[in-house]
Design brief:
Mean pLDDT: 85
Largest sheet: none
Pathway: Energy metabolism; oxidative phosphorylation
Membrane topology: Single-pass membrane protein
Family: Belongs to the cytochrome c oxidase subunit 6c family.
Low-confidence stretches: none
Order of helices and strands: HHHH
Structural class: mainly alpha
Number of strands: 0
InterPro entries: Cytochrome_c_oxidase_VIc, Cytochrome_c_oxidase_VIc/VIIs, Cytochrome_c_oxidase_VIc_sf
Protein name: Mitochondrial cytochrome c oxidase subunit VIc/VIIs domain-containing protein
Radius of gyration: 26 Å
Number of helices: 4
Shape: elongated
Length: 71
């Protein structure tokens, strides 16, 4: 009898499990967005606005011979 109760446990309240699964997934997405994506976005903006010189990088790549059309 105990095995039958364990078997029917998941099928007993399907809407509850769907709501819980949706809530956990939404929480994980929000945590990822504000814990990983936003700090990474801010770090990239800081790098490209403050420290990155695109012309200097282009000249280094051109001198290395990677660009065949820009000699």
């Amino acid at each position: 009898m105990a095995q039958l109760q364990f078997y029917c446990l998941l099928a007993e309240h399907p809407w509850f499990h769907i709501v819980v699964a949706f809530t956990v997934a939404l929480g994980a997405a929000v945590l990822y967005k504000f814990g990983v994506a936003e700090p990474r976005k801010k770090a990239d903006l800081y790098f490209y606005r403050r420290n990155y010189d695109s012309m200097k990088d282009f000249e280094e790549i051109r001198r290395a011979g990677i660009f065949q059309s820009a000699k």
